Amino acid sequence: MRYSTQLHTPRANHRRHALQYHVFSTVISLFLFAFTAIALLLIANVARLSATTLFGGFLISLTRVSVAYVISCVLAIAIALLITSNRSVEAFLLPIFDVLQSFPSFALFPFLVEALRDQPEVVIVGVLVVTMIWPILFTIIGGIKNRREDLEEAASIFGATGVKRLSAFTMPSLLPSIVTGSIVGWGEGWEFIIGAELLVNARFGIGSYLGVLGNSHQNSLLALGILILMFLLFVLNKAIWLPLLRQSTKYQSES
Question: Containing H/E element for 223?
């Protein structure tokens, strides 16, 4: 008993130091975010950049990307489970999807714009789905292929079937793959939405606003708008995707 304090003190100290470091790093990050945001807003105001139009356009574009992401993620999970459920189905469909992922999404624009002239939102979201789905789909397929067989057998032994198996075993085990593929797909979505909004002449959106600045040769404002967009995307990644990535590591299993 006389050694119990000495044995537990280093571990307690380690936890306390880790907590202090986490709190300190969080405070510093929030301070840097706030300082950068205020600085960019002041610069935008001085440069006469329309902050309302810029941030409003960003929110509209964010909504479009988010809707496309949800559709892409649901479709990717369903297709991945379908493909890997049967070897014959996999042998037939996997090469087809492998070829389709190489198809340039912007090549669909002439057809979609002609077919859906009065629905630009559907055109934008449709092209985004075609762009975002592939990294999510193939990352999930890889996650299914790399699942441990002993965990599969354990789930079967404990009676995990149907919806219960999907919610209690399949989805948690695929969470790291879903998050990893989502980060890549999310990034590709933001790369494509700028061009998508320009090509369909969307009235609102961050791409539309940046296009107006570019067409009017306001290069300094265009550069500032791109800088603010990069900052906003960095904040989203820091606030949403990085925590999800850290959380998903809890569900990883060593092979």
Answer: helix 219-236
pTM: 0.78
- Asked whether the beta carbons of 111 and 165 are under 8 A apart, the reply is no
* 135-150 CB burial, b ≥16 within 10 A, e <16: bbbbbbbebbeebeee
Q: Report the domain count for the chain.
A: 2
Residues 119 and 161 in one domain: yes
Long-range contact list for 10-17, CB < 8 A, 24+ apart? none
121: its two tokens: 């939102």
Residues 123/113, Cβ–Cβ less than 8 Å: yes
Phi, psi of 131 (to 5 degrees): -80, -40
Q: Which is nearest to 200 in space by CA: 129, 121, 108, 115?
A: 121
User: For 34-85, how does the pLDDT look when each residue is reduced to its tens digit (9 = 90+)?
Assistant: 666 666 666 666 556 677 788 888 899 999 999 999 999 999 999 998 888 8
Answer yes or no: do 19 and 128 share one domain: no
Alpha carbon distance, N-terminus to C-terminus of the chain: 40
Alpha carbon distance 127, 46 (integer Å):
37
